[in-house]
């Protein structure tokens, strides 16, 4: 696949993977992207997951024919992109690695060598001339590892963006970008909003026509749409009006309250209600929804003197990902000493700029007249502004 006249795609699709990064379900697989720039000198950008080394090297051979690559540019050392560095360097004994100082430290950790005779260490602002193409390197620490750099080719106006602008899903599946890019962003990069903002500021100074990420499709159209979404996500802004409801339910009584709330929210004009059963649905989808919408309802039972485990895990995900700037409401259930709301509020204590809804719902085993009225009042409050 040609990206431009000189830039070719040499990545791979993975439909064998069960869990990406050991935790994310990827029903449509995963792409590990890699690119070749053909010029007086030939550069390969990044490697692919360990299981696809031979296929990747075959794609490189297909792209460069009998020529030999001069450089392997390593933007990110996470193994989904770095696993085949050693086999590349063995296959092409004259090639040189171009990467950040920190990345070479990681290479010695992964491979037992930092290629002392075959490396060029680059930092922010350094350039590498391939002939017609002059690449400049931009530090992107914590997007999403500390060694990360991205690469700008001023000749073809291409930004090689490492994990930024990536998504779940292989490239031979046609699907909406935002849905799986959002789930990927909040799961994997979401904690590092400040660092993504820093990268976006640097990117704003560049004339970009194409974004080549390490996962997901090459972006050539509507770049403003993608950049705007990344700006909203990384600034923890509200993307869509609506209410996310995350719940656990043991015997169905808490679920009934959630269903009633969803119905009442819709009756009160709420544009979107996204409901997740934390025990059965995808946790990463629930995290994504919590960040997508401006309001979140947490509904769970008191359990073993605490809250139901799936809800504890969910709130831990939110806190870990710097959850902020939202309104949160609570529904608790308990048959003798309900105190789930107290526990959930306590867990969110360190989060910045959270407003807690005035109305809370307390269910004593099953909905009754009083708790039903509380649900109705909560729905009204959440739809007021
Ligand atoms: Fe796709 Fe952070 O690795």
Helix/strand layout:
Layout: E1 7-9, E2 12-14, E3 19-20, E4 24-25, E5 30-32, E6 35-38, E7 42-45, H1 53-64, E8 71-74, H2 79-82, H3 85-91, E9 96-99, H4 101-111, E10 119-121, E11 127-129, E12 134-139, E13 149-153, E14 158-160, H5 177-189, H6 193-204, E15 210-212, H7 223-234, E16 240-247, H8 253-267, E17 273-277, H9 283-292, E18 293-303, E19 306-307, H10 309-320, E20 326-334, H11 340-347, E21 354-356, E22 361-364, H12 369-384
Parallel strand pairs: 7-8, 8-9, 9-10, 14-15, 16-17, 16-18, 18-20, 20-21, 20-22
Antiparallel strand pairs: 1-6, 2-5, 3-4, 6-7, 11-12, 12-13, 13-14, 18-19
This protein binds MU-OXO-diiron.
The site of MU-OXO-diiron has 9 residues, from α2.
Protein architecture, described:
The chain has about 375 residues and is α/β, with parallel strands linked by helices. Helix content is about 35%, strand content about 25%. It contains 12 helices and 22 strands. The strands form 5 sheets. Strands 16, 17, 18, 19, 20, 21 and 22 form a 7-stranded mixed β-sheet that branches. The chain has a 6-stranded mixed β-sheet with strand order 1-6-7-8-9-10. Strands 11-12-13-14-15 form a 5-stranded mixed β-sheet. Helix 6 packs antiparallel against helix 7 and helix 8 crosses helix 12. It is elongated, with a radius of gyration of 24 Å. About 45% of the residues are buried. Bound molecules: MU-OXO-diiron (FEO). The site of MU-OXO-diiron has 9 residues, from helix 2.
